């Protein structure tokens, strides 16, 4: 009889503990920082006061991806256009709400304005892929990448 009461008491306490632990665990959901940042960026995408930071790389439209950007218009190496990172661009199979927007890109005191005309599938949130015409106004193409900030122009 003692063994039965001990097992019953153990089960009752386990049920009581799990009943109090489950609602507490459900009420406290930790969202990874990258998801939080992506959500914030989605909420503010297109907001004129938002500043983004990331890495600028460069590409040659004619030989890397074709002469038509994800947004549609033709682009060339001398075009003042950029490819927006995939997390901010959104569905890569559709035209983004970012398409056609002008951005002011800054690096070490230099700034240039360019138009979003393409998407960069491998770029991380905040990063842009620039044509040589845009990249050369900010830095030397031989460096390959620049730490930039940018806003809507």
Automatic annotation (TrEMBL):
Keywords: Signal. Residues 90-149 form the RlpA-like protein double-psi beta-barrel domain. Residues 1-19 form the signal peptide. InterPro entries: Expansin_CellWall, RlpA-like_DPBB, RlpA-like_sf. It comes from the Eukaryota. CDD domains: DPBB_RlpA_EXP_N-like. This is RlpA-like protein double-psi beta-barrel domain-containing protein. It comes from Mortierella isabellina (Filamentous fungus).
């Amino acid at each position: 009889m003692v063994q039965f009461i001990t097992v019953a008491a153990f089960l009752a306490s386990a049920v009581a503990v799990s009943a109090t632990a489950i609602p507490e665990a459900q009420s406290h959901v930790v969202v990874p920082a990258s998801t939080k940042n992506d959500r914030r960026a989605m909420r503010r995408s297109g907001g004129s006061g938002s500043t983004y930071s990331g890495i600028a790389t460069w590409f040659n439209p004619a030989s890397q991806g074709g002469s038509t950007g994800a947004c549609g218009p033709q682009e060339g190496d001398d075009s003042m256009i950029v490819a927006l990172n995939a997390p901010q661009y959104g569905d890569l199979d559709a035209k983004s709400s970012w398409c056609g927007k002008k951005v002011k890109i800054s690096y070490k005191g230099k700034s240039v304005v360019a138009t979003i005309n393409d998407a960069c599938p491998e770029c991380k949130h905040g990063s842009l892929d620039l044509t040589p015409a845009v990249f050369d106004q900010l830095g030397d193409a031989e460096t390959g990448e620049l730490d930039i900030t940018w806003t809507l122009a």
